[in-house]
Amino acid sequence: MSESPAALQSLEALQAELAGVWSGALLGASADTESDVRLMGDAGLVRVTEALARVQRRVQVLQARCAAELAARSRTGDETDVAKQHGFASAERLIVEATGGRYTDAARLVSIGEATAHRATFTGEVLPARHPHLAAAFEAGSVSIEVADVIRRFLDHVAPRADREDLREAETLLVERAPSIGVEGTQRLIRQLEAYLDPDGVKPREDELRSARSLKIWQDAAGMINLRGAFDPATGAPIKLAIETLVGAELHAARDARHGFGAGDGDAGEAGASATGGSPAAGMSGSDATAGAAASDATAGATAPDPLFAEDRSIAQMNADALADIARLSLSSPEAPPALRSATVIARVDADALASGRGHATIDGVDQPVSIQTARELAMSAGISPLFMADGCEKVQLGRSLRLFNSAQRAVLIARDGGCAWPGCPRPPSHTQAHHIDWWTRDRGPTDLDNGIMLCAHHHHRVHGDGWKILIREGRSWFVPPPHLDPDQRPRPGNTAPDHLAREHLAVRRRARNAGRHASAPALVGSATA
After folding, report:
1. Rounded Cα distance, 277 and 110, in Å
2. Which of 274, 310, 275, 278 lies closest to 294 in space, CA to CA?
3. By C-alpha distance, which of 319, 456, 309, 307 is closest to 377?
4. What are phi and psi of 126, to 5 degrees?
5. Helices 132-140 and 103-115, interaxial angle, to 10°?
6. Which one, 8, 68, 98, 361, has the greatest CB density within 10 A?
7. Distance of CA 430 to the CA centre of its chain
């Protein structure tokens, strides 16, 4: 049997290695691909995946060599052009047909093949590859073709403006680091290297990125408001930081909840129980008393995570909520630009629809109608003005000026709740709105402190959408879940401002001590007289 071509011997060695790894990974007899994979142990499956990647990288080397040669033979400009002989406009088109892949992949094979192949002078002298360190790493299979192309494009781009020795050092560094940091890590390293190799190009590149910044906002057929943007570093940095900070805080809070942090509210529950004779619900009547009596149970498991308050949003949803919170804060901030301070979101709703709860509302500038429930949420949000319309009439009531909690009331509510009162929510006061517990229209609830609570937009929506009931007893909030979430409807203690919690705790203890002293006073007097 004749010996295999030298170019294929390394591939055959890798195939033999793959066969051994595959066989060693099987925990039973081999049948077919799908069955074999299912029979592999965890460690064996990982080893097989790594072996397949080595084979793939070797095949890519052979493909790149063939692609570069096909490209060279397809640029003759005469009848010997290989691509045209086979009916294709270029070598890349021929490769696309052969591989069934994309044109960009074919072009990459050609570029990498040419950049890592030996060169020949007009006299026939053989010269090293244009990027020799990259060529060696690619041939050895230590870098994939994707990483090799990223490095190749960078080196070709910066070569005219960089010192030759510095460029070689950069190539060496990239080739050494690329196997461990992958494509994205290599791109990050390249951006820093480019600044060192071409310091005069930093400002022009920055200007180019800045001129390409954009943000498009449109509404699709489903009624969703879509945003697609690209920002230069200086413009995008505050956007990125603000969103990541808000989302990071919520992720930390969710992690802490899983580990049972934040048990301090349990003390408040016990304090409330002491002050009311054993239950934070003392003094309630009917179903409120039943719900409040169950509240003491909430303190018993304060250190255990409550599944009802588990974070169920994806990162993408949390990013969207964070951006919405930033926009709401900007609309109500006195530090916002003058044009933004005068901007108001207007929700229009028919008065009969608002009263009956049947119908819909519209938001100025947004095509998609919204529900009455959403209109009520907007009506209670800072910086939002609902505009109530009667049939064929002019504006009859501007809800923002008549029904929103004023700044003094908000200050008192913030002093009590500390921010969003929803259990475990870390949102600060600046990201909350004062919400009517008994709704303004549906329940004719007053804009009084006893009927107010601070909620962030996300949890405001949950209260409305899920049917939670909120109780205020002994100066703190209790959240009663709807039956479909908790058949027992066990109240959960809401967030309380730390200073309010400490103050109330001390007040309860002092009242208990004073009551004890007054109760024992006659006995003490009698003892002294005797």
Report:
1. 83
2. 278
3. 456
4. -90, 125
5. 120
6. 361
7. 21
